[in-house]
Amino acid sequence: MVSVLVDNIGELVTNDAQHGDGAPLGLLRDAALMVEGDRVAWVGERRFAPAADTHVDVAGAAVIPGFVDSHAHLVFAGDRAQEFAARMEGRAYSAGGIQTTVAATRASSDEMLAGNVARLVAEMQRQGTTTVEIKSGYGLTVSDEARSLAVAAQFTDETTYLGAHVVAPEYADDPAAYIDLVTGPMLDAVRPYARWIDVFCERGAFDADQARAILAAGAAAGLHARIHANQLGHGPGIGVACEIGAASADHCTFTTPDDLDNLAQSGVVATLLPGVEFSTRSPYPDARAMIAAGVTVALATDCNPGSCYTSSMPLCVALAVREMRMAPAEALWSATAGGAKALRREDIGRLEVGLRADFSVLAAPSYVHLAYRPGVPLMHAVYRGGQPIA
Ligand code: NIG
Ligand code: FE
Known about the structure:
- The longest helix is centred in the N-terminal third of the chain and has 17 residues, at about 110-125.
- α3 (about 110-125) packs parallel to α4 (about 140-155) and α8 (about 235-245) runs parallel beside α9.
- This protein has helices at about 80-90, 100-105, 110-125, 140-155, 175-185, 185-190, 210-220, 235-245, 255-265, 275-280, 285-295, 315-325, 330-340, 370, and strands at about 5-15, 25-35, 40-45, 55, 60-65, 65-70, 130, 135, 160-165, 195-200, 225-230, 250, 270, 295-300, 360, 380-385, 385-390.
- It is globular.
- By secondary structure, the chain is an alpha/beta fold.
- It has 14 helices and 17 strands.
- β16 and β17 (about 385-390) form a beta hairpin.
- The chain folds into two domains: about 5-65 and about 350-390, Urease, subunit C, domain 1, CATH 2.30.40.10; about 70-340, Metal-dependent hydrolases (TIM Barrel, Alpha-Beta Barrel).
- The chain binds N-(iminomethyl)-L-glutamic acid (NIG) and fe (iii) ion.
- Fe (iii) ion binds near residues 71, 73, 228 and 302.
């Protein structure tokens, strides 16, 4: 196997606390990273680097693990720019806009849907994302959810069935019948393509009992749970996530101290999506209180045409730092190792021997620049499984 030494790294973020001063980022200065095949083969100070077949000299740049974007809704058609413009003029965000995208998605061909996902995934990769979770949820019929997940599975292993995004328009008068569909024939149809099941547990979408029933059906079919929780108001979503042992409760915009204790005790990851608060002018989640309570925090984009149409993890890092008062180190950890925890992945999110060689070389001397230089394209090169992808 050919070995490649990425050499002359000014600052290497490993997320392996055995390096550096023991802090979670595991920072190394004047470092090198050896890749063999798709794996990390060696990490350390460059003066101790082993011999390698080829060298890539990054001239003192910072190197960080690839971003793990653990929450994105990429299978859709059309956009909702007019809804965004109206919101910026004072209209509130509501879950109702989802139906606009459902209609456009149903009217779209498989090829158009796949083309849109390909465009967004390429956009993400250029911004340093090496793993993305992709949800369905804009089909809401058996065939449209199944084809949404079949499209998603062309791009990632982290596919999530979100038939329980909102009640499909045809079932507006009979939500119980829609839940029977979601937990029955629709679940059967998506099962070959889905790893996760998600539910939007919120007023206007699904309540706690409905969410429990949907996630239990998913679990019986072998799908692991994650939840849209406490996005638009205080609600039962986080409680349900903790009770059933979901991998992650996502949004967590409105929380009580009990919610935070519950998350910390149960080990459910809180996935914060600050691009949503930015794009809907909502209050930001209380990341400081979560961290103080011992909650594991992840950061993700929530890329979708309604509440947040950004594909940029660097933007989310910058927002987390500026608006949620996360330290730059905390935000970067949450956007990489935190995302891996939210997806229960042990092989990504850190740069350690044996893990997948997913990393970005920054056009900057320090990871701090991700927040310090908001909006600036700082990815010099992005590698996934040891191969340059952007
Ligand atoms: O995560 N909360 C529910 N779903 C998306 C928004 C979907 C949309 O508005 O199209 C979210 O914010
Ligand atoms: Fe979402």
